[in-house]
Amino acid sequence: MSILLISGTSTDVGKTVVTAALAAAASAAGRSVAVCKPAQTGMAPGEPGDLADVTRLSGVTRTLELARYPEPLAPDTAARRACLPLLNLGETVAAVDRLRDADLVLVEGAGGLLVRMGEFTLLDLAAKLGAPVLVVAAAGLGTLNHSELTTSALAAAGVPCAGLVIGSWPTDPDLAAHCNRDDLPRVTGTPLVGAIPAGAGAWDRDRFTATAPEWFPADWLADL
């Protein structure tokens, strides 16, 4: 069993679609997959959240959400404003441990690496689990700084970085995007292991699952 945490350099960089793509690619290789989203914000009870998108795109149905807060804010802020309990590190580690019979457990964070999931950050969770973090980055201006800050924080904490993925590669990339695709590995010292086509989150499941394995190097996927 392997655990991989998925974080972003910021919010809205494509973490959920990357998580779905990894789930689809691993499933296509015959591996059992479970997906955990510790904290979901900006959703009312019963409303489909990020895990519903993962299932819709990948077909993976073993999912686990631990806490949900109605306002679209950082989880700890949203919890306090709603007068709801904050997640703690121990109960989150225990929840992930309950999924260990799957071949691959994917844990999707909220926003960036140091966003408070509750009483802890995704960086804290990765360190406690002893698991690597895959960083999802944007394609355009600003991504070099955000990506280097994120990978530097991982390195300082002694948490392995599994690579960088561009969460939404434009259909018609501009000069900055082209340059960033070359420069991201250079400035971060971390390999670029994927780029998800813009709009892939709106594809139907058949197209998504058939194409997702092509977005990552086969040897990298096999090593997860």
From TrEMBL:
The keyword Cytoplasm belongs to this UniProt entry's keyword annotation: yes
Keyword line: ATP-binding, Biotin biosynthesis, Cytoplasm, Ligase, Magnesium, Metal-binding, Nucleotide-binding
Principal subcellular localization: cytoplasm
Record-listed ATP binding positions: 12-17, 50, 108-111, 167-168
Annotated catalysed reactions: (7R,8S)-7,8-diammoniononanoate + CO2 + ATP = (4R,5S)-dethiobiotin + ADP + phosphate + 3 H(+)
Cofactor names: Mg(2+)
Enzyme class: ligase
Pathway terms, separated by semicolons: Cofactor biosynthesis; biotin biosynthesis; biotin from 7,8-diaminononanoate: step 1/2
Active site location: 37
Record localization: Cytoplasm
Binding positions (substrate): 41
Residues where Mg(2+) binds: 16, 50, 108
Keyword ATP-binding: yes
Alphabetized GO MF terms: dethiobiotin synthase activity
Pfam families (UniProt xref): AAA_26
Domain of life according to the entry: Bacteria
Entry EC number(s): 6.3.3.3
PANTHER family: DETHIOBIOTIN SYNTHETASE
Described function: Catalyzes a mechanistically unusual reaction, the ATP-dependent insertion of CO2 between the N7 and N8 nitrogen atoms of 7,8-diaminopelargonic acid (DAPA, also called 7,8-diammoniononanoate) to form a ureido ring.
Record's subunit section: Homodimer.
Sequence similarity: Belongs to the dethiobiotin synthetase family.
Protein name: ATP-dependent dethiobiotin synthetase BioD
